[in-house]
């Protein structure tokens, strides 16, 4: 009985490998890949927008007869998500980008337009230089001037760097100290200028006038007595103020001191003789009689309760 798992096979002497039938069909040229759209596009069939980065199950193939310096170009087939129309695009190794080929149009991208404009300007400049020798001379002069400016700026930077490298630590400390002192001086000047402006504004708005006679109340701003202090342990009567700080009017004129006094005080100031006489005392009205209430004698609570209260006896002196 033969072995179930043989390692060697028998080849007859008349075996010809060329007579073995081959499978029909060649190697498949397309393969299925999963990709994301490299740019936003719009379907030409239904107008559906397909944004950049949308995932598709695509078919990839190598473009026959096209390459860029030996780099292969690939073509991808996808279907529209709305109408299932076939859309194809292929790689662009020259611009490191992709190109819409069939079934869709690429959306407008401003940076691509800028590159196209720059390329057009460069080609127009070359064409103009070919036909106009004077233009070539002008362009060369401008380029030379630009290069000289760049070299001058570079030389300044190098000289500054070399000077900074030669500076010692002591010089750096001196520079920092000088900068700090200048900064402090600037801050002091700024603070002093602000204080002067505030003082000038206060003088424009406020003014000091003489105080009224002693014993007269003042209705207006609070009085200030520069040069005098008061404490709780001093006498009950406050010290008489010498000056009063008042606010000026909008037109800049000083207000009259009498305008700051009350009506009664103003009458006393206008008639000094009336100030010596005290005001007449007001009689106290009987509120109960004015309201029609009769008040009788207070009842004796002990008599009402039937309690006899005897007078206390005087103690005999010993």
Automatic annotation (TrEMBL):
Keywords: Metal-binding, mRNA processing, mRNA splicing, Nucleus, Spliceosome, Zinc. GO terms for biological process: generation of catalytic spliceosome for first transesterification step. GO terms for molecular function: metal ion binding. Residues 213-256 are annotated as: Disordered. GO terms for cellular component: U2-type catalytic step 1 spliceosome. It is found in: Nucleus. Belongs to the CWC16 family. YJU2 subfamily. HAMAP family: YJU2. Part of the spliceosome which catalyzes two sequential transesterification reactions, first the excision of the non-coding intron from pre-mRNA and then the ligation of the coding exons to form the mature mRNA. Plays a role in stabilizing the structure of the spliceosome catalytic core and docking of the branch helix into the active site, producing 5'-exon and lariat intron-3'-intermediates. This is Splicing factor YJU2. It comes from Calocera cornea HHB12733. The lineage of its organism: Eukaryota, Fungi, Dikarya, Basidiomycota, Agaricomycotina.
């Amino acid at each position: 009985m033969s072995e179930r798992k043989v390692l060697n096979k028998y080849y007859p002497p008349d075996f010809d490998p060329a007579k073995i039938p081959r499978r029909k069909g060649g190697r498949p040229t397309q393969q299925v890949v999963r990709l994301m759209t490299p740019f936003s596009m719009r379907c030409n069939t239904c107008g559906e927008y397909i944004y950049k980065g949308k995932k598709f199950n695509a078919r990839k193939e190598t473009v026959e007869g096209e390459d860029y310096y030996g780099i292969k170009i690939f073509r991808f087939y996808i279907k529209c998500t709305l109408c299932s129309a076939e859309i194809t695009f292929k790689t662009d190794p020259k611009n490191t980008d992709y190109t819409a080929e069939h079934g869709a149009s690429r959306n407008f991208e401003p940076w691509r337009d800028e590159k196209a404009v720059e390329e057009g300007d460069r080609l127009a400049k070359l064409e103009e230089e070919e036909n106009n020798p004077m233009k070539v001379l002008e362009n060369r002069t401008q380029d030379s001037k630009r290069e000289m400016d760049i070299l001058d700026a570079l030389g300044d930077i190098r000289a500054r760097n070399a000077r900074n490298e030669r500076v010692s630590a002591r010089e750096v400390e001196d520079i920092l100290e000088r900068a700090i002192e200048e900064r402090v001086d600037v801050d002091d000047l700024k603070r002093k200028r602000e204080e002067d402006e505030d003082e000038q504004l206060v003088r424009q708005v406020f003014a000091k006038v003489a105080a009224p006679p002693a014993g007269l109340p003042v209705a207006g701003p609070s009085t200030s007595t520069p040069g005098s202090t008061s404490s709780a342990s001093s006498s009950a009567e406050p010290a008489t103020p010498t000056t009063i700080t008042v606010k000026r009017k909008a037109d800049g004129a000083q207000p009259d001191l009498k305008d700051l006094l009350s009506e009664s005080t103003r009458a006393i100031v206008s008639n000094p003789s009336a100030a010596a006489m005290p005001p007449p005392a007001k009689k106290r009205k009987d509120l109960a009689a004015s309201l029609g209430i009769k008040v009788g004698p207070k009842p004796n609570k002990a008599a009402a309760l039937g309690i006899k209260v005897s007078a206390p006896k005087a103690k005999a002196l010993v």
